[in-house]
Amino acid sequence: MVMVLILAAALWGLGALLGTPARLRWTMIGCLWLGVVLLHLLLPVGAPLRVATGGSAAPWLLLGGFAALVLIYRAGLLRMRRRAEMRRAPPARSGAFSEAELERYARHIMLREVGGPGQKALKEASVLVIGAGGLGSPVMSYLGAAGVGTIGVIDDDVVDLSNLQRQVIHRDADIGMPKVHSAAAALRALNPHVTVRPYARRLDDQIATDLFEDYDIILDGTDNFATRHLVNRTAVATRKPLISGALTQWEGQLSVFDPARGAPCYACIFPDIPAAGLAPSCAEAGVMGPLPGVIGAMMAGEAIKLITGAGAPLRGTLLIYDALYADARRITIKRRADCAVCGTKETS
Q1: How far apart are CA 158 and CA 146, in angstroms?
Q2: How far does CA 215 lie from the centroid of its chain?
């Protein structure tokens, strides 16, 4: 029995040394436990392997049951804590502007399309940013500077040296820090009048709906199609406008997907997840450093227009910007009746 415990400890230590995720290490130990239990159930009494591993399955079953209870209890606590965190309503951002805020936002208030009412709408608005990387950096910076009252950001990554070429909200001293906490610190330093809510975890189906319900507008700056489709499905289900941006090498694109107001959703234009290798990420294909700033600033501009009612947001339009040749193109996009996410056509 001692040898099995030593082997389990060795598996855990080797996994930690190789950087294997904790969940995978627990899975390997669980497979080891299952193998020992099966030995005791299948081999006859007195078999050498049974003797070497304790002689009976009972201690292993008790150990497994105790471990299962601990894991279930821990998972329950984590789930309750996360649900409480996601459901916590953003603080109210109403009331008169302070003298400092009036001076800070003076250039906005002077704009006929914004004015005092528009700036008040910004102060009372809440925006959720998915991803604190290349696009999330300028989006959060400009929304925070503009006075958007509550900014949520969700990301499970940490700051890496290779990020700093384009993710300008992070600093060299932030390397190794969760991106959401680095970004939150930068936003609070930029504008103490905004509330920042960082979520240091990956977006998944379990939390997406509850999280989206707390915000007025969703901005997607992620770099993988699975998350983009999850964001789109949840935004459609919660009737939230989705401002989506994407980058590759020298080219970026963005649009406002808003089926609740007649515009197409992301799946109307990109219904399927591309096969591996057909749409490489920035890490695989590279990206020109200032490009995320250009597209991210445009995304922030679309959010400000949606909040204040100014101008014509990019609903029903896909804007493509080619930085290599300084060329921008607008493509009209339409909602598909047979879209699997927002379509209205009945299928047999």
Answers
A1: 26
A2: 14
